[in-house]
Amino acid sequence: MRVVLGVSGASGAALALACARHLARLGARIDLVLSPMAERTLDTEVGPDAVGELEAIAARRHDIRDMGATVASGSHPVAGMIVAPCSMRSLAAIAHGLDDNLLTRAAGVQLKERRPLVLLAREAPLTLAHLRNMTAATEMGAVILPPVPAFYLRPNSVDDIVTQIAARAVDLLRLGPPVAAAWDGKS
């Protein structure tokens, strides 16, 4: 089972690593696509070894400019795609079919092939343009998953929050049993 993991330059770079770790535990082979700003954000927010760790987890890293990569084609079988984090620029390009780089093209392929596409849209506050782009992407079949903490789980750290949000994203691909902590019905 292959999964595309796209990483844009939005804040929240730790989400990409957490998603990759969850996917690896499920035995998924990851096709990684990083934007240039994603590399910078990973370095700034996570540390200088973050890109290397992502590359080590991934089965393959594709250059974002390589529009001939396997993940640019619907004939290449994958189980779905997560964009974590998803910048508003990437969201807008996906919502309007602007397949102008491999990240947005691979996302468009998921939509046209009716495969799961989960976008961890990262911005606040939201403008009307952001909301309309989220609506457009949702109408085409994407799932918008803003990285909002599940406070009812009483997280003890930022790492707990990041791990839970990434687990929810991976669960939305329906690759196996849920890995995210679930509400137990108690207050």
From TrEMBL:
Tell me which residues make up the Flavoprotein domain: 1-169
Q: Where is dimethylallyl phosphate annotated to bind?
A: 152, 168
The reaction(s) catalysed by this protein are: dimethylallyl phosphate + FMNH2 = prenylated FMNH2 + phosphate
Report any Pfam family annotated for this entry. Flavoprotein
| Top-rank EC class of the record's enzyme | transferase
User: Which GO terms of the molecular function aspect are on file?
Assistant: flavin prenyltransferase activity
Q: Which UniProt keywords apply?
A: Flavoprotein, FMN, Prenyltransferase, Transferase
Q: What Gene3D superfamilies does the record tag this protein with?
A: Flavin prenyltransferase-like
Superkingdom of origin: Bacteria
**Which residues hold FMN?**
9-11, 35, 87-90, 122
Enzyme nomenclature, EC number: 2.5.1.129
Can you tell me which family this protein belongs to?
Belongs to the UbiX/PAD1 family.
Protein task? Flavin prenyltransferase that catalyzes the synthesis of the prenylated FMN cofactor (prenyl-FMN) for 4-hydroxy-3-polyprenylbenzoic acid decarboxylase UbiD. The prenyltransferase is metal-independent and links a dimethylallyl moiety from dimethylallyl monophosphate (DMAP) to the flavin N5 and C6 atoms of FMN.
HAMAP family registered for this protein in UniProt: ubiX_pad
What this protein is called in its record is Flavin prenyltransferase UbiX
Task: Please report the organism this UniProt entry assigns to the protein.
Answer: Paracoccus chinensis
Upper lineage: Bacteria, Pseudomonadati, Pseudomonadota, Alphaproteobacteria, Rhodobacterales
* Gene giving rise to this polypeptide: ubiX
